[in-house]
Amino acid sequence: MRKLATLLILPTIFLAGCSAEPEVAKDPTSYAAMSAGLENSCESFTGGSAVDQIEVAGEYGTNPEVTFPTPLSGTGVETKVVIEGDQGVIVGSQRVALHFTGFNAATGEQFQGSEFGTENYIVQDLIDGAAPDFCKALTGVQVGSRVAILLNAQNAHGGVGIESLGISAEDGVIFVFDVVSAYLPRAVGDSQTPASGLPTVILAPSGQPGVQIPTSDAPTEFQKSTLIKGAGEAIALGDTVVVHYSGWTWEGTQFDSSWEKGAPASFPVSVDSLIEGFVETLEGETVGSQVIAVIPPEMGYGANAQGSIPANSTLIFVVDILGKE
After folding, report:
1. pLDDT of residue 166
2. Do 173 and 215 belong to one domain?
3. Rounded to an integer, what distance in angstroms lies between the CA atom of residue 133 and that of residue 76?
4. 74, 238, 259, 287: least buried by Cβ within 10 Å?
């Protein structure tokens, strides 16, 4: 999935729904409620005298009118909250949905933009230290906000410029974002007593899981256990979910992990796109939950080898359900 971080070349991604009403913050299934108390994983945004020179007119959800003196240059990453939302704080290392417009800070030329107020949002994974450094720019911002962001050349494009967009190596970049929604960075909720006989899950401070696998033979039937029970919506067949996951064979070989790729994954909950065991793992679970599942070969890849997965492998997945699109 292409996003803002891919050299600022932005496709349109269709996400379901639009920005939430303020009363959603009172809903225990909302992002605001479930993310309350999470610690920031990126440095919080800061302002600056340069970004304060950017003027943005227009209501949230409408195309903004943006004016600023040129050339405009700042230091590092500067953020100005133009309209403050109240739908939960961005904490970093997560996926967000945005409307945006982008300008060359040196020339004033607009180079890209979405149609504000529509469902043609873009999605962006906030990764600490990435360039552009949107994690620093947006951590601490409330969902439902409109913000102006000024990135110097190093933080915008590594100081190499983007010739196709008319951005030279010395040019900074300005974005105006409407923050439409955010997904959880990890499972949140109440810890549950795990079922006996399943691998033991050990979490790193980031939330990334590891497993200790029993020395016994692999189970012959599908098994799953909810390790953290989230308060969000239940997952049904046909939903498109955003998840973090890691997968191992029963022999202990890790064959895939969204955590190590640095960004969550999204896909429809359907046997047309997922193995049967993964569908069973997700169906009926709630957003915010963490689930471990042991999937026998007939519900996985069967007698077919898949990359580093040998034929007839029993699979182990640990999945954090971060949201629904």
Report:
1. 96
2. no
3. 9
4. 238
What pLDDT does 17 receive?
33
Instruction: With cut-offs at 50, 70 and 90, classify the pLDDT of residue 129.
Output: confident
Amino acid found at 73: S
Do 309 and 209 share a domain, yes or no? yes
**For position 118, which CATH number holds?**
3.10.50.40
**Number of domains forming the structure of the chain:** 2
Residue-range definition of the domain harbouring residue 305: 190-324
Which amino acid, residue 133? D
* Position 131 confidence tier, pLDDT thresholds 50, 70, 90: confident
Per residue in 63-122, pLDDT (tens digit) is 999 999 999 999 999 999 999 999 999 999 999 999 999 999 999 999 999 999 999 999
Within a domain: 9: no
- Tell me if the pTM is above 0.70: yes
Asked if residue 8 is part of any domain, the answer here is: no
Amino acid 303: pLDDT: 96
> Does the pLDDT value for residue 195 go beyond 70?
yes
pLDDT of residue 295: 98
Judge whether 4 lies within some domain.
no
